[in-house]
Amino acid sequence: xxxxxxILDPAEQACCGQALGLGQRVEWVLxxxxxxxxxxxxxxxxxxxxxxxxxxxxxxxxxxxxxxLAIHPSRPxxxxxxxxxxxxxALPDGVDYDSDGIEIDLLVDHGQQLPELFSWPRR
Length: 123
What we know:
This protein has one domain (2-119). It has helices at 10-16, 48-51, and strands spanning 2-8, 20-21, 25-35, 38-43, 57-73, 80-88, 90-91, 101-108, 117-119. It starts with a strand and ends with a strand. It has two helices and nine strands, in the order βαβββαβββββ. A hairpin with a 2-residue loop joins strand 3 (25-35) and strand 4.
């Protein structure tokens, strides 16, 4: 098995995401996108990437890790300066997440084809 990290949008997870737990089997539509130099896998729950031309693929696997990111401002102007990741054992559905990001380590089933890299056009 191969392991990849998938980013879930907290707002989409709160709106339409399923409950997740360690070891749970999932089947997600993924896009592989980049802005700048860092490519990443995103769960495409609302076909937002496909609409913009990204090639998506349905990928199945098991949840190996769940991390939630919070960015805490500590300057008077509210500029974020501290990023804190915390590991979770589960994400319930229908929760309004107070986080700035959710990462899932996914153990991808053998034989799965991953999506091609898509670079957002520069504006």
